[in-house]
Amino acid sequence: MSDITSTRGSDEGLATILYATDDWTVNGTRGMVFCDVAGLRSAVQRAAELASAGHHIIAIVRRPPTETNLFWDQIVRLADRVVEQDCPIAFHAMTP
Predict the structure, then answer these.
(1) 94: alpha, beta or left, given left = phi > 0 and alpha = psi -120 to 50?
(2) Which one of 29, 67, 72, 76 has the fewest CB atoms closer than 10 angstroms to its CB?
(3) What domain range is 30 assigned to?
(4) Would residue 34 count as lying in a domain?
């Protein structure tokens, strides 16, 4: 039996590992893996790009042994955080 656990990380906890190197996948329906990337920030970016191209993104998943699942609402919140961190002037100019 495997001792792998699956968790949903908090937004704050995930923000601390946005730029860390780790294996993540961007997943669609029926277990389809759209891509493998080497970091959470890259996974969030690819999920946003794929969604804007019309693909249905189900989750971003960090591969075992530390499996973490991010679903769409959390992906959007982290994408907003990435935009704010990477382009703070542009982000605040767009915010009502």
Answers:
(1) alpha
(2) 29
(3) 9-68
(4) yes
